[in-house]
Amino acid sequence: MSFKKVSHVIFDLDGLIIESESIYATVIGEIAAKFGKEYTRDIRLKIMGTPEPVTASTAIKELQLPYTVDQFLEEYLTKAKELLQHPKLMPGAKELIEHLHKHNIPIAVATSSAQDVLDVKIQDHLDLISLFHHVVCGSTDPEVKHGKPAPDIFLVCASRFPDKPHPDECLVLEDAPNGAKGAVAAGMQVILVPDPDVPEEWRKPATLVLNSLKEFKPELFGLPAFD
Ligand SMILES: O=c1[nH]cc([C@@H]2O[C@H](COP(=O)(O)O)[C@@H](O)[C@H]2O)c(=O)[nH]1
Ligand SMILES: [Mg+2]
C-alpha cells in the first residue's frame, strides 16, 4: 500500500501520547457502578476522544444516569484530575516526538480535553510537550465548534501552523475511532493506534492501523526515517 507524502504531523493526546485511557475508563466505570450500571466497551467506543460535554451527555444517555451534564462533569472532572496527575507515556511516543522535532517537522497536538485538564495531565511531561508548535484543546477552544468525530479540531490545528498546510499535507496520529473519523473528514491521512479491544469494524476509517507507535515508519509518509 502506498501513502501520500506529508509535511506536518498532528498528534492526539489521550491514549496516544499519554496512558490516560485506562484512567478515564476507571473514572466513568466507578460513576456507572454507583448506579448498578456497567461502562461497557461499546459505550466506551462512542465516548473515547469526545469533548467533555459530549462525554457527559453520551455517558448519561447510554448509562441512564440520574445526572444533568453539569452534575456529571463536576464528578467526572474532579475524579479525573485527581487520578491523571502522573500518567505514563505510551510506548514509542517520546522517541517519535523527539525524532520529528529534531528533523524540524512541524508537529502539534489536537486533543478533545479542556485546557485545565490538559495542564494537570502534562505536568510531568512539559519538556516533551514544549516540542510541539501548538496544542489545540477541543473542549475549551472557541474556534472548535464541533468535537471529534467532526473535522473541526484538525482543521483548526492545521491552520495554526505558520505556513498553514493543506489538509492533505497533514498526517494525524490517533488512538480513538472518533478521532480517526474526524481526521478523514478533514481530508487528512490518519494512523490509528487503537486499544487492542477496538473491533475491526471501528478501525476501518484509518489509513493505516498500528499496534504501537514503535511500529511507525515515518518514511512511508515521506518523513525522515529513524537512524
Ligand atoms: O473512557 C473515556 N472517556 C472519555 C474520554 C474523553 O475523551 C477525551 C480524550 O481526548 P483526546 O483523545 O482527543 O485527547 C477526554 O476529553 C475525555 O473526556 C476518553 O478518552 N475515554
Ligand atoms: Mg485519544
Characterize the structure shown.
With 227 residues, this protein is an alpha/beta fold. The chain folds into two domains: 8-19 and 87-219, Rossmann fold, CATH 3.40.50; 21-83, DNA polymerase, domain 1 (Orthogonal Bundle), CATH 1.10.150.240. The protein is 40% helix and 11% strand. The protein is built from ten helices and six strands; from the N terminus they run E-H-H-H-H-H-E-H-H-E-H-E-H-E-H-E. Strands 3-2-1-4-5-6 form a six-stranded parallel beta sheet, with helices on both faces. Helix 10 links the parallel strand 5 (189-192) and strand 6. Helix 3 (52-63) packs across helix 4.
Structure summarized in a few sentences:
This protein is an alpha/beta fold and 227 residues long.
Structural key phrases:
binds pseudouridine-5'-monophosphate, 6-stranded parallel β-sheet, HAD_sf, binds magnesium ion, DNA polymerase, domain 1, alpha/beta, 227 residues, metal ion binding, 40% helix, Rossmann fold, EC 3.1.3.96, hydrolase, PGP-like_dom2, 2 domains
Provide the CATH topology of the largest domain.
Rossmann fold
Percent of sequence in beta strands: 5-15%
Task: Note the total helix count.
Answer: 10
Q: Distance between the terminal alpha carbons, to the nearest Å?
A: 23 Å
What low-confidence regions span 5 or more consecutive residues with pLDDT below 50? none
N-to-C series of helices and strands:
EHHHHHEHHEHEHEHE
CATH architecture of the largest domain: 3-Layer(aba) Sandwich
Radius of gyration equals 17 Å
The small-molecule ligands in this entry are: pseudouridine-5'-monophosphate, magnesium ion
Query: What's the number of structural domains?
Result: 2
Largest sheet: 6 strands, parallel
